[in-house]
Amino acid sequence: MRLLLPALLASLLLGCGAKEKVVVFCAGSLTKPFERLADEFRGRYGVDVEIEASGSRVAAKKISELGRRADVVALADWRLFPQLLYPKHCKWFAKFAANRLVLAYTDKSYGANRINSQNWTEILKEERTRWGHSDPDADPCGYRALLALQLAEKFYRKRGLYDLLLKHKRRVVRPKSVELVVLLQAGELDYAFEYSSVAVQHK
Hints:
Layout: H1 4-16, E1 21-27, H2 31-45, E2 48-54, H3 56-64, E3 72-74, H4 80-85, E4 101-104, H5 120-125, E5 131-134, H6 140-155, H7 161-166, E6 171-174, H8 177-185, E7 191-195, H9 196-201
Parallel strand pairs: 1-2, 1-3, 5-6, 5-7
Antiparallel strand pairs: 4-7
């Protein structure tokens, strides 16, 4: 990705003439790396880059439903391009990176000293545990988190696990997955489903 964004922005300058500002709609999980690349681009080409982060589905609908314009759109789920943007709103798109889903927590999280790959669903079920995921209707990380719970129910052969966890009184849902990182760091949340790249960025 470090090479791709400068190349995309540079092509915009060549194709559209001098631009005073390049607008980027991106997934919240891509905010930090895109901000670093935008700073590099500003220094190299003297053109401002405006980054607007949101859930991927929200970002796509800003264009498809609200009629807004962006020069670059970077989403966490490539399938949203053919679903909402291509070919009516963009001429092409490219898959350029991969990620994985993780359950992020801190040393201060409840159960941090005993959670492992076998008992994590039991930890989430405990009444004291505060855990969360992003909005599945707005952010791909959210619906992937729900899918992970469905798969966990089958993998660990724990019938009813998915429904039980969704009824948990201390489950937290936020529009963007990166908003949960702030809660983790503040000690207001114990566990959050995040992309691995986001967890590493805030390690």
